[in-house]
Amino acid sequence: MLAISKSADESKAIQNDLLEQFDAIIEIKDQDLKDLKQENDLSEQGIAVQQKAFKSVTEENNRLGGIRSDLDKIIKERSEKIDELTQLYEERAENSEFAMDEVNLFYKKEIKKLEAEQLKAEEIRAELDLKLEEIRIATEFENRRRIKRAAFSNEEDRYSQDRAMLKTIKETTPLSETPLKPEDFDFGEIQGNNIKILKKIKNIESGYYLIIAVHSDADSRDKFIKNVVASGRTNVDFFHDVNTSKYYIFYDKFDDIGSATSALSSKGDRPYNGKMSIVKIEN
User: Fold this and answer.
1) pLDDT tens per residue across span 255-264
2) Alpha helices for 45-184 (secondary structure H)
3) Does the pTM exceed 0.70?
4) Measured in Å, how far apart are the chain's first and last C-alpha atoms?
5) Which of 1, 12, 25, 99 to pair with 130, CA 20 to 30 A apart?
6) Residues 6 or more apart in contact with residue 139 via CB below 8 angstroms
């Protein structure tokens, strides 16, 4: 009984050290979460902040996994020692000669102390597990906020670059010396006769657009626009659908389907109008 009791006391120190290591890693993860949340909050308020680099947590998580595994093992072993000590105490207490002697009274008190310590350790372990899960969920949420914010910034940068390119094309493309033909135009993805509906397209008004070409890359888009400008039409424009990464090129927009359909019917034989279709934008 004395040997088991001493062994339980020795394992208590190891168990407490592992709980402290577990808590220390959780504190690091909690601070990372707070920093990330503050960065997101300030950025959404328009306050420029130095963005922290995405942190590789593989080593940290591996260490945490090792601590949790060792903690599970030591808690199990210590609980088994307490159970073994309790069994020996009960066997000794069955002998009326030893039931109320000083040894049994000492170990009765010792077992209660050990059981209380172990219950507390298990409660702390459960609380740390719960806190770790809460941090994990909150961190995932904040990472999604950061990624969404980065995507928004990238889209705004792309829009500015697109506008600059369109302006340059219109200002530098001369009229073609010979009339261009339909085969000079790459119309990209053919839309067909059905009206396509696009939702939540940034930087463009709702309405019905007469689409003359659809491209998935900027080079093909720019070449088509240059040919349109070279043909004499300078009010050509385009918008970008971030959901499909496609560019829709147009030069006319209407508020109602009747007007758009009428314009489509009277599109004429201009070489860039060969694959014209209607796209409705709902923002």
Assistant:
1) 999 999 999 9
2) 58-93, 102-172
3) no
4) 77
5) 12
6) 29, 32, 33, 36
Instruction: Give the pLDDT confidence of 49-68 residue by residue, as tens digits.
Output: 666 666 667 888 888 999 99
CATH 3.30.70 segments of the chain = 182-282
pLDDT in tens, 126-183: 999 999 999 999 999 998 888 877 766 678 888 988 999 999 999 999 999 999 999 9
Which residue from 268, 222, 283, 280 is spatially nearest to 249, judged by alpha carbons?
A: 222
**Minimal CA–CA distance to 253: which of 218, 227, 283, 215?**
283
The mean of the pLDDT values for the chain is 89
CATH 1.20.58 domain range(s) in the chain: 2-158
CB atoms within 10 A of CB 147: 11
Confidence of residue 1 (pLDDT cuts 50, 70, 90): confident
CATH architecture of 2-158: Up-down Bundle (1.20)
DSSP secondary structure letter of residue 182? G
Q: How many CA atoms does the CB half-sphere of 88 hold within 13 Å? A: 16
CATH 2.40.160 for domain 182-282? no
